[in-house]
């Protein structure tokens, strides 16, 4: 089931006239939908389904809980598989350890290159006077400087990669506009990160082409430590990203503990695991007092 079919299914959920129709649509969705993190984010089907977990019909609520738990598990397994594949690939390490994987690398004069050596395009004697446009030449220079951080690759390999990156961005923007410069600046920041040797290694060796690098999102270029932090946050928020304002209702079922009035607006949100009850957030319309419970 692609994004278009998923959105069509969401419309059917919204238009379902009764519980029987809801169960029918959810069952069909459960059978045909193969969740991926990208598809969940693109369509927000997880949010649409999760809103029904407190439905008055126990069949609907039970089916939704089962589906959400299953989707969460499958997405997590996909992430773990991807991480195992990344862990299995050779990774250069910062500092002296990087020399172990590149013992035979030499510089332009034939001497061995030390990964701890501070390098840039000037010290490596690289000719960056490639284009008639000084802006493009400057971008090749800064990209080169980023790629040689903790690197033992010879200047010729690094320059080739730097040119490939710059050419990909220039081809996309078709000029040295502000968009071109902003993109080059963003790539430079990610490439020069001392904690991100894997990204630099993949670019220099051609495993990640200049065109592929240009299309990567910032979170895809982030170092491993930051990626793990982002993944933890995304894991918590994947099925919980629903605007509070869209669910807010006013009721007299709750009493404000401050002014004792019963005019209270509230909304519910999933703040814990899928099998835990929704958290209810309340606001007194009289005095503005706020509280929550689950």
UniProtKB/TrEMBL annotation:
Q: Which Pfam families match?
A: Med26, TFIIS_M, Zn_ribbon_TFIIS
UniProt record, GO biological process: regulation of mRNA 3'-end processing; transcription antitermination; transcription elongation by RNA polymerase I; transcription elongation by RNA polymerase II
Where does it localize?
Nucleus
Main location as per UniProt: nucleus
Where do Basic and acidic residues bias regions lie? 114-124
GO molecular function term, any single one? RNA polymerase II complex recruiting activity
Against SUPFAM superfamilies, the record matches this protein to: Conserved domain common to transcription factors TFIIS, elongin A, CRSP70, Elongation factor TFIIS domain 2, Zinc beta-ribbon
| CDD domains named in the record | TFIIS_I, Zn-ribbon_TFIIS
Q: Which residues form the TFIIS central domain?
A: 135-249
- Tell me which InterPro entries the record gives: TF_IIS-typ (IPR035100), TFIIS/CRSP70_N_sub (IPR003617), TFIIS/LEDGF_dom_sf (IPR035441), TFIIS_cen_dom (IPR003618), TFIIS_cen_dom_sf (IPR036575), TFIIS_N (IPR017923), TFSII (IPR006289), Znf_TFIIS (IPR001222)
Family stated for the protein in its record? Belongs to the TFS-II family.
**What biological function has been recorded for the protein in this entry?**
Necessary for efficient RNA polymerase II transcription elongation past template-encoded arresting sites.
Protein name, UniProt field: Transcription elongation factor
Naturally occurring in which organism (per UniProt): Starmerella bacillaris (Yeast)
